[in-house]
Write a structure and sequence with these properties.
The complex is a heterotrimer.
Chain A: E1 7-9, H1 14-19, E2 25-28, H2 34-39, E3 47-50, E4 60-63, E5 66-70, H3 75-79, H4 85-96, H5 101-104, H6 109-115, H7 121-125, E6 132-137, E7 140-145, E8 150-152, E9 155-156, E10 163-170, E11 177-182, E12 194-199, E13 206-210, E14 217-219, H8 223-227, H9 229-238, H10 245-264
Parallel strand pairs in A: 1-3, 2-3
Antiparallel strand pairs in A: 4-5, 5-10, 6-7, 6-10, 8-9, 11-12, 12-13, 13-14
Helix pairs in contact in A: 9-10
Chain B: H1 23-27, E1 43-49, E2 55-61, E3 70-71, E4 82-83, E5 95-96, E6 103-104, E7 110-116, H2 119-128, E8 130-135, E9 161-167, H3 174-177, E10 180-187, E11 200-206, E12 211-216, H4 221-232, E13 239-242, H5 258-270, E14 274-277, H6 280-286, E15 293-301, E16 307-317, H7 330-338, E17 348-355, H8 370-388, H9 392-397, E18 408-409, E19 415-416, H10 421-430, H11 434-442, E20 447-458, H12 462-465, E21 477-483, E22 489-493, H13 502-514, E23 521-525, H14 542-568, E24 576-579, E25 582-585, E26 591-593, H15 594-603, E27 618-623, E28 631-643, E29 650-660, H16 667-687, E30 717-722, H17 744-756, H18 770-782
Parallel strand pairs in B: 1-14, 12-13, 16-17, 22-23, 29-30
Antiparallel strand pairs in B: 1-7, 2-6, 2-8, 3-7, 4-5, 9-17, 10-15, 11-12, 11-14, 15-16, 18-19, 20-28, 21-22, 21-27, 24-25, 25-26, 28-29
Helix pairs in contact in B: 8-17, 13-14, 14-15, 16-17
Chain C: E1 4-10, E2 13-19, H1 25-32, E3 51-54, E4 57-60, E5 73-75, H2 84-95, H3 105-118, H4 124-130, H5 142-159
Parallel strand pairs in C: 1-5
Antiparallel strand pairs in C: 1-2, 3-4, 3-5
Helix pairs in contact in C: 2-3, 2-5, 3-5
The chains are: A alpha+beta, B alpha+beta, C alpha+beta.
Chain lengths: 266, 783, 160
């Protein structure tokens, strides 16, 4: 279980990093997703581009009602309160249940999202927020709505010559209610079904159903689900193709419990 | 609950919860495991392994620039195959080529050894090899292995079975007289043992001693030496096997490995140290090798719950080859003899099959067949109780062997040495408020109570194993004891300590006999050059056999010391005794310390008496209990489980173990063994499973797929000890090392099924995963 | 193959090693620096046997790229001499019989030390959750959990 040979580069700035893309090199942030794949030889890139040392690779800034989380911000930083306010509290709760603390100390929000494993926590949760992924390519930055960022198993809307630079989320008012439920047989295990519900006062509530081996499914207006979670969850899950009875049960349960948790969230 | 420091030896002897002597090195990262040893010139090996489960191997293409660094069976001149036969009538012998030759019989079977200066480079070589093979139909399931027309794994066999055993008894009248009859079909999953350290071997040729030195992560260094000798054609004197610190064993390291043989051969051929360290991918996908059983059980009882008879048809998926030394049939054939469990079963018939499949060869894992048997028997007992409308405790109580029947010989000839089985049951049940559980159930909570009672045979010896006729039969266990010139007591044992705490417990035994402070006792083990022959650490035998042997060696050494001490004290030998680390006059006068005795023997021989035994202060003592049919520890596991009917998740709320290990050498260590076994048993019950698809591919390649219980999955657990001495062992101790892993699947699934009873649902197959619980509920709903 | 120069501070001492770019941190520590107290249990980040302290926080050395650690400070189980929390944990591990084969122990201790320092108010449920990234196959965890709680409680008692 040792990786196949690859080259290692540590670009000094973002344009240099972007320029290294192509030619079979893969970006690496904390390396906690790609590390196992390299060891197992499930990934055999020509080279690895280390993004960890880039300027502004990590950190959180808030301005104009938007919170920008640099892609290289670690799960542990978010768990420990790097993101302020109501949004930060919500994200901290998500972060705390990602893998294990030693993994969270290295693993990053951007790395996890760009890796696009449907069972990963940020992949499952971030579409609930009306925010964007900020990509950087040869022509500069562009924004991709989080709800359409992950497009399939290990595939995203990033173009081959783009890197994920940051995530931008709306600052949330106090009074925002949040429900997040996932099923893991052990703490730190990949989720087998995740749902979350975000209810911002004065806006239509949003919900996501995820971690079902497919890209996350956004329910942009979850009013009906919240009003009748039993029936709506069954209806939503029945429309999903190919779920075995257990995963279907988990999916229904995830939606119902996320709704309930949002309802109980004061 | 653990009686601290109750031994006769003043807090360090037998019965004391002495803290472990071996901890310090591990706590500082100074344990020395095979992967930590890096001699100059080390070469590393990666194995090219079979990607398919069944094929005719037509050729191996070596990378053009590296032909001299890739070795196939064709290169291994003079190396024989691995043959682990059993003398049981009808046993079919498989011959396992060290590297595959002619045929590939399971995914992961080693085909070529690739040698390089680093493991990564060796893996590059393996990846650069090409394979030519012709796939054959696969036998992926034990039940279809013997179906007409099934492809033959060993083509000269008439069908895919290593062995079939049976016991006939006509039970046809029982239907007419029984008040209850149940039949259950059950399965246990194929598992990986997952010691935290995998296997590993480092082989070197020592030109000075003209000796092959094999450092291997093995539980049985002496057995490995014999096996290497047989396969390599070297005499045993020219092989030394060292077992350094082991990162867990559990049975996984009780095997002669093809990789060991290949590395040994390479070291001699290349005249360089050569090592192979198993990685987790190899462990999971090439060596998933234990626990896979299938049962059809029928049991009959009268209206009071008394068993009238039982019938079991058991199949064990033994994989593709017979492993050395325990063979492919130990597990299945054992089922017949242990199925009656701790009960007074009056009538019994069985048939067992050791099925050959395209999977890795099976090995005995902690508990061996007992975990599966306990699961099959104890879930059947609960089903009977439910049918009769009596409590699970009641049906057990009326069938358990009563204490006044001990020692008890059951209908298949197993002899239970001592104990009060019903008392263990009563004590376990008394820990719970069953009315409260019933009230919760009545209030609609999906919660249940489960029990399992079982006994564990340990340290069984010659009289049991000679009948198996496998490559070794355990006989007398020996230990060496000697004083160093400064009076340190050295104990040498051929057993191997890998977590069981023998460096501490054997020091306690030595202290008990000679009174030497435990801190002044050193236990040397794990090296054929330094220790007497032993079949090694397996079968819950170390405390009984090693404890007895160490005590005997110390007694003999004490006699030598006594003679010298008496002379120094100018007393008759009959007028002195050993106590508290000194030879003392019985009349209460002077004493001379054992250190002084040692100093006299080694450094002041002019002071020795005439006629002193010239053998000096170095002795070998041997020991075997009489009879040596084994001790029977026993236990009752009791658990409260809650089931989430929406997700299928099972949560263990409370767990109680009442167990009897006879006289405990060290209660703290007994607890550790029981709790460690429990964690593995919880894994068997709820989490661990290596599925194979129809083409024989293992499907759980990482620990993210193969779930091993962590701290959060283990329930709060209480242990309650009983201490009924075995009448047959040196201190009354009984083997307990495997016990903890035997009861949990039965107790937990009984609790789950108690919880699911009101839905009419029942879980049959292990693990009782959320998916299986939901499936059971949906099946019940559909009815 | 071009080797990568990597500068590290390991257990307080500067180290410069040349390694193949594909090397992970655990292999660098074990193979190049002979710090074999860091163990490999799975090489995919689940079992925790390889846990070391990297820039003052526990990390998985088996899935952390060695080259990415250039300039980092690392502490392995061999590097905690005189550390009061580690000494307390070692004593507690022995007192509670929190180890058997010892293979998971170095990673377990480094995780345990992080729990004690980062979560001074942790209760048993939290300790079990936080230990979930470190697998032990021998002990059943009770001794480990009790050892961590013993040290936490002693420190809480000290603070009054």
């Amino acid at each position: 279980m040792k990786p196949a040979p690859f080259t290692y580069s540590r670009p000094a700035d973002w344009p240099a990093a972007v320029a290294l893309l192509g030619g079979g090199a893969r970006p690496m942030a904390g390396g906690q997703s790609i590390g196992p794949m390299l060891n197992l030889r499930m990934a055999q890139p020509e080279g690895v581009i280390d993004l960890r040392h880039l300027p502004d690779a990590r950190g959180v800034t808030v301005s104009g009602g938007r919170c920008r989380i640099a892609a290289g911000t670690t799960h542990a930083a978010i768990e420990d309160g790097a993101v302020p306010g109501r949004l930060g509290a919500i994200l901290a709760g998500v972060a705390r249940r990602i893998a294990y603390r030693p993994v969270r100390n290295r693993g990053t929000v951007g790395g996890s999202l760009a890796h696009a494993d449907p069972a990963a926590d940020w992949v499952a949760v971030l579409p609930a927020f009306p925010g964007d992924a900020v990509a950087v390519g040869p022509a500069g930055e562009r924004r991709i709505p989080l709800a359409s960022f992950v497009t399939g198993l290990l595939s995203s809307a990033l173009r081959p010559d783009e890197l994920l630079r940051a995530i931008e989320l709306p600052v949330l008012p106090e009074g925002t209610r949040w429900g997040h439920w996932k099923f893991c047989r052990k703490p730190g295990e990949f989720s087998k079904a995740t749902a979350c519900v975000l209810a911002v006062p004065g806006e239509a509530p949003r919900a996501v159903l995820a971690a079902l081996d497919e890209p996350p499914m956004l329910i942009p207006d979850a009013t009906a689900l919240i009003a009748a979670p039993e029936e709506e969850a069954s209806r939503i899950v029945a429309a999903l193709p190919g779920l075995d009875p257990w995963r279907a049960a988990l999916a229904r349960t995830a939606l119902r419990r996320a709704v309930r948790m949002a309802g109980e969230d004061a | 609950m653990s009686p601290d420091g109750v031994g006769q030896g003043g807090g360090q002897g037998v019965g004391a919860s002495l803290l472990r002597k071996e901890d310090a090195r591990f706590l500082h990262g100074r344990g020395r495991y095979v992967g930590d040893i890096r001699p100059a010139g080390l070469l590393e090996v990666a194995f090219l392994r079979s990607p398919v489960a069944h094929a005719r191997l037509l050729g191996v293409g070596k990378p053009a620039d590296a032909e001299a660094r890739v070795f196939t069976m064709a290169d291994l001149a003079g190396v024989g195959g691995i043959r682990a036969a059993s003398a049981l009538p009808g046993f079919r012998v498989s011959e396992q080529s060290v590297l595959a030759s002619g045929k590939l019989r399971y995914v992961g079977e080693a085909i070529a050894a690739c040698v390089a200066s680093s493991r990564a480079a060796a893996e590059d070589l393996a990846a650069a090899c090409s394979l030519d093979y012709e796939e054959l139909p696969v036998v992926s399931d034990m039940l279809t292995a013997r179906a007409p027309g099934a492809p033959l794994i060993h083509e000269h066999w008439p069908d895919n079975a290593f062995l079939e055993t049976q016991r006939d008894e006509d039970l046809s009248d029982l239907d007419g007289i029984a008040a209850a009859k149940v039949t259950r079909q059950l399965r246990t999953a194929r598992q990986c043992m997952v010691p935290m350290e995998g296997r590993g071997v480092l082989a070197e040729w020592d030109p000075r001693l003209e000796q092959l030195v094999v450092t291997s992560s093995t539980q049985q260094p002496h057995i490995i030496r014999s096996g290497l000798s047989e396969v390599l054609g070297l005499d045993e004197g020219s092989i030394r096997v060292i077992a350094p610190d082991l990162g867990g064993g559990f049975g996984y390291k009780g095997i002669l490995l093809p990789e060991e043989i290949a590395c040994a051969w390479l070291a001699m051929r290349l005249e360089r140290p050569v090592r192979w360290i198993e990685d987790r991918l190899e462990h999971l996908t090439a060596n998933a090798n234990c626990r896979e059983h299938h049962y059809v059980v029928t049991a009959w009882a009268d209206r009071n719950g008394r068993l009238l008879g039982a019938e079991v048809d058991a199949t064990v998926d033994s994989g593709a080859y017979s492993s050395y030394p325990f063979s492919a049939c130990l597990e299945a054939a054992q089922i017949g003899s242990i199925f009656p469990g701790p009960y007074t079963l009056p009538r019994f018939r069985f048939r067992t099959v050791s099925a050959c499949t395209n999977k890795p060869p099976i090995l005995p894992y902690r508990g061996v067949a007992r975990t599966g048997v306990c699961y099959a028997l104890e879930t059947t007992m609960d089903a009977l109780a439910r049918q009769l409308g009596i409590s699970p405790a009641r049906i057990r109580e009326v069938n358990l062997v009563p204490p006044d029947a001990m020692p008890y010989r059951n209908l298949v000839g197993k002899v239970f040495d001592s104990g009060d089985y019903p008392e263990a049951l009563r004590r376990a049940v008394a820990h719970f408020d069953l009315d409260r559980i019933a009230a919760r159930q009545a209030a609609g909570e999906c919660v249940g109570f489960g029990l399992a009672v079982f006994c564990e045979q340990g340290a069984h010896g010659t009289s049991v194993y000679h009948g198996w006729g496998i490559p070794f039969v355990p006989g007398y266990e020996q230990a060496m004891a000697r004083f160093t010139p400064d009076g340190v007591l050295e104990i040498r044992t051929g057993l191997q300590n890998h977590g069981q705490g023998m460096e501490t417990t054997f020091a306690q035994v030595a202290h008990e006999v000679l009174g030497v402070p435990a801190a002044r006792v050193r236990v040397v083990h794990g090296d054929t050059a330094l220790t007497p022959y032993s079949t090694g650490t397996w079968g819950s035998r170390a405390a009984v056999m090693g404890g007895g042997a160490v005590a005997e060696a110390c007694r003999l050494l004490g006699e030598r010391a006594l003679a010298i001490g008496a002379s120094l004290l100018q007393a008759e030998p009959g007028g002195v005794e050993i106590s508290g680390g000194a030879v003392r006059r019985r009349d209460g006068g002077a004493e001379v310390t054992l250190e002084e005795v040692a100093r006299t023997w080694y450094r002041r021989p002019q002071n020795l008496p005439r006629g002193v035994d010239p053998g000096g202060l170095e002795v070998t003592g041997g020991y075997r209990p009489d009879p040596d049919t084994g001790t029977h520890s026993y236990a009752c596991h009791a658990v409260v489980a809650r089931v989430d009917t929406e997700t299928g998740e099972v949560v263990l709320e409370d767990y109680v173990i009442v167990e009897d290990a006879g006289q405990m050498l060290n209660p703290m260590i007994v607890d550790g063994q029981v709790l460690g076994g429990l964690a593995q048993g919880v894994g068997t019950a709820l989490y661990e499973e290596m599925p194979f698809d129809a083409s024989g591919q293992p499907l759980a390649g990482t620990l993210a797929d193969y779930l091993v219980p962590g701290a959060a999955e283990l329930p709060a657990t209480r242990i309650d000890h009983m201490e009924t001495p075995s009448p047959w062992t040196r201190f009354g101790q009984k083997g307990i090392g495997e016990s903890g892993a035997i009861g949990p699947p039965a107790a937990i699934v009984n609790a789950v099924n108690d919880a699911l009873h009101r839905f009419g649902a029942e879980v049959m197959d292990l693990p009782a995963s959320p998916a299986r619980v939901i499936e059971a509920l949906e099946k019940a709903r559909a009815r | 193959m071009t080797r990568l120069p990597i500068h590290l501070t390991v257990n307080g001492e500067a180290a410069e090693v040349l390694a193949e770019p594909r090397t992970h941190l655990a292999d660098l520590l074990r193979g190049e620096l002979l710090l074999t107290g860091t163990h490999l249990g799975c090489e995919h980040g689940v079992c925790g046997a390889c846990t070391v302290e990297l820039d003052d926080a526990p990390a998985r050395s088996c899935i952390t790229h060695a080259g990415a650690c250039d300039g980092a400070r690392i502490r392995t189980i061999e590097g905690f001499a005189g550390d009061a929390v580690m000494e307390a944990l070692r004593g507690a591990f022995t007192a509670e019989h929190a180890l058997q084969c010892g293979y998971c122990t170095p990673g377990m201790l480094i995780t345990a030390r992080d729990i004690v320092l980062r979560l001074p108010d942790a209760d048993e449920v939290r300790v079990r959750e936080e230990l979930s990234g470190n697998l032990c196959r021998c002990t059943g965890y009770r001794g480990i959990v009790r050892a961590v709680l013993r040290v936490l409680e002693a420190r809480r008692a000290l603070k009054g």
